Amino acid sequence: MIAQNIGFWIIAATMVVAALRVVTTNNVVHAALWLVVVLSGAAGQYILLAAEFVAVTQVLVYIGAVMVLFLFGTMLTRARIGSDSDLNNSYKKLGIPVATVMLAAMALALIRSFGDEKMPVSDNIVSTQQVSDQIFGPYLLPFWALSFVLLAAVIGAIVLARKD
Amino acid sequence: MNPILAEIPYWGQSLLRVLGGLVAVLLPAGTIVYVFLFKMMSFMQSRLGPMEAGPYGSMQLFAEVGKWLQKEDIVPERADVRIFKMAPVIVLLSTFLLVVVVPFGPDAWFTDFETGVFYALAVSSVSVLGILIAGWASANKYSLLGGLRAAGQLIAYELPMVLAVMGVVIQAGTMNLQKIVVAQNSGSMFGFDAVGHPYVISQFVGFVIFMIAIQAELTQAPFDMPIAESELVSGYMTEYSGFRFLIFFIGEFATAGVFAMIASVLFLGGWGVPFAWFGWTSIDDIDNWMNIAGPIIMLTKMMLLVFIIMWIRFSYPRLREDQLQRFAWKGLIPVALGNIMVTSILKVVF
Fold first, then answer.
1. CA A129, CA B115: separation in Å to the nearest integer?
2. Is the N or C terminus of chain A more exposed, i.e. has fewer CB atoms within 10 Å?
3. Residue B245: helix, strand or coil by DSSP?
4. Partners of B192 in the beta sheet?
């Protein structure tokens, strides 16, 4: 077992525990902070896969922006210290089966397609430059399409937020 | 890699890098506090500053640290204890993560990160999280208001900072901080290579925006709404005492130092001297003594930039919240976007 594998299992175990705490804790801010642990674990896994650009993007977008805005929003509206008794957990009965089925489906798909097959270790690590060459080359059109979707969402948010 | 460094086993190199990281964070922080906060501010206010501890008050900092360490670590009764205790550590952690990508010499670096600039901008945003939960967990309205103000301000000023860096990245053609240093020092301006090509000249707009943005990111006056003492006691730090306050305090000045180092790497040529002076052509020709001289050059440039930050801090009154937001969104961001456009057009033309 090489060091990367040990790292993978430690991070993966932490992520699973943190993910369970996100849905079982009864404080909104605690749930958000456990989600931060899950997301930084994902960034760590990307680093182990030598995808540093994706890892850094994960930190910048999810931890630096999405989670901060999320916490900002909850703290402005409702974020009590201590446990919240009136949290809406009534969808638990529906949520647990759905999550189990999703896990089973993904596990089945992975085992069916790869089984015990070992992936060859690839030497050519994809550099950031290659990623950008791909985005601004063959994938330019999808990139533009995505940009327009984001722009539409931004304008939509402004329209919704403005009172006048 | 350097032959001397290559002889040391991996664990030894790692240990050296960790020690180097501690020095690179704590030494500038201490120097900044003594030189600027204790002495420069005092002189600007026509007083002497601390004079008793050590020659010329130079040991004052150790006295202060000793004082903070022996104070009681008070946690408010209604606070969320675990998160309250965790928050200052997250802020300091972000500083340590930030210094990892800063190069100090041809071989004196911690990691040779290919997307260094991008990484630095990403981990600097982690400190917002610490400040936000520090404000919330204190169970105090002033603290919460301070935390929310800080988050709003840090998000707003992160954008012009990222956009200002973009101009440098376009010009250097790389996001690796080490290669940005080499690009500046081996470059020339219209064939004139006596000073290399520091981007502070060709990216002057970007430099000014970056300096304003880090002033706001560090919540130094005139951007100190989050800890405005006349309105919020001291914002998100109100309830902290003892060594947890010390961690916030070190975090503030260490981050000032690290941001100034990043600014000096991006705009002033970092650890390097113009390669033309010694007839070097690439990073492999550089003599070994640059690994000693590099950090000193770097610290000099850092002190220069921190001097500017502190000078402005001690000179200007505080901006109002709406002025602060308007300045970022309607002033800095459009200018930074324009700067990117002009830079990329000129890059294609030349």
1. 10
2. C
3. helix
4. B189
Amino acid identity of residue B91, one-letter, is V
Helix B242-267 and helix B116-124, axial crossing angle in degrees, nearest 10 = 150
C-alpha atoms less than 13 angstroms from C-alpha of A48 in its C-beta half-sphere: 17
Contact B175 A69 (CB under 8 A): no
CB B338 within 8 A of CB B344: no
Closest residue, chain A, to B126 (C-alpha):
A64
How confident is the model over A154-163, as a mean pLDDT?
A: 87
Domain-embedded: residue A95: no
A79 lies within 8 A of chain B by CB: yes
**pLDDT value of position A48:** 84
Contact status of A56 with chain B (Cβ, < 8 Å) = yes
CB contact under 8 Å between B115 and A75, yes or no, is: no
**Which residues are CB-contacts of B306 (< 8 A; sequence separation ≥ 6)?**
B28, B32, B36, B256, B257, B260
The whole domain housing B277 covers: 73-349
Our count of domains for chain A comes to 2
Per-chain mean pLDDT for chain A: 84
Considering only the beta carbons, identify the residue of A63, A64, A81 that sits closest to B80: A81
Q: What are phi and psi of B192, to 5 degrees?
A: -95, 110
Name B38's Cβ contacts closer than 8 Å, sequence gap at least 6.
Answer: B49, B50, B57, B60, B61
Domain carrying residue A18:
3-83
A26 within 8 A of A17, measured Cβ to Cβ: no
Q: Residue B278: pLDDT above 80? A: no
Residues on chain A touching B151 (C-beta within 8 angstroms): 68, 71-72
* Residue given tokens 């990508």 in the structure block: B101
In one-letter notation, the amino acid at residue B263 is A
Token reading at B87: 């928050």
